Amino acid sequence: MPGRPFLQIPGPTLVPERIVRAMAQPIIDHRGPTFEALVRDCLDGLKGIFQTTRGHVALYPGSGTGAWEATIVNTLSPGDRVLAGINGFFSAGFARTATAFGAEVERIERPYGGGVPAAEVEARLRADEAREIRAVLVVHNETSTGVTSDVAAVRAALDRAGHPALLLVDTVSSLASIDFQFDAWRVDVALTGPQKGLMLPPGLAILAVSDKAVAWPTCPASSDSPGRSTR
């Protein structure tokens, strides 16, 4: 068929022509100064998109699913308890990834079409008097339904409960499409891919990581769980 196909699904989104043309340039030395400057430019630019000055950006070949795995294996150990908001296909997949790596997942189930309820997150965390829950999993925008959960409200729920758990957020279909404030909402890990709001080809895992998450394996709150994976 003549013309350019227009794929109207949540992703992969269409890549702009100027990006496609740039991909046709000759390959550059991946150990040379041009590539180094390109990577630094990408990392700095991504900080602006995540709205962070303090977060550490990680960028490597992978997928959104690979970013899930990196988030889980670098912050949790087998047997750790996590609290997961389940309100769609992808939030269920995020929780399954945690289970696959040995975490004990406590689920907050919502019907498809609803967001993660911050009030219930707070109640579950308050009930965790021993502070055994290590992380809270949230999908910012549930791709399967288009419903956006209030990450700021979830952070406020952790604060009101006085709970030290990490806040781990999937931003695959929200970053660069919906306002997301890594620093202001004190997110600990935000993960995404390039094929949706960034309008780039798939194949990268992109994460922003807080100092708290970087230090998590050795901080006092996790000294009872030696041998955490640092893949």
CATH homologous superfamily annotation: Type I PLP-dependent aspartate aminotransferase-like (Major domain)
The termini sit apart by 46 Å
CATH class: Alpha Beta
Number of domains: 1
Q: Total helix count?
A: 7
Per CATH, the architecture is 3-Layer(aba) Sandwich
Largest sheet: 7 strands, mixed
Order of helices and strands: HHEHEHEHEEEHEEEH
What percent of residues are in strands? 15-25%
Helix content: 25-40%
State the low-pLDDT regions, or none: 218-231
Backbone CA Rg: 18 Å
Spatial ordering of strands, largest sheet: 1-9-8-7-4-2-3
Count of beta strands: 9
The CATH topology corresponds to Aspartate Aminotransferase, domain 2
Task: Look at the helices and sheets and give the structural class.
Answer: alpha/beta
- Global outline: globular
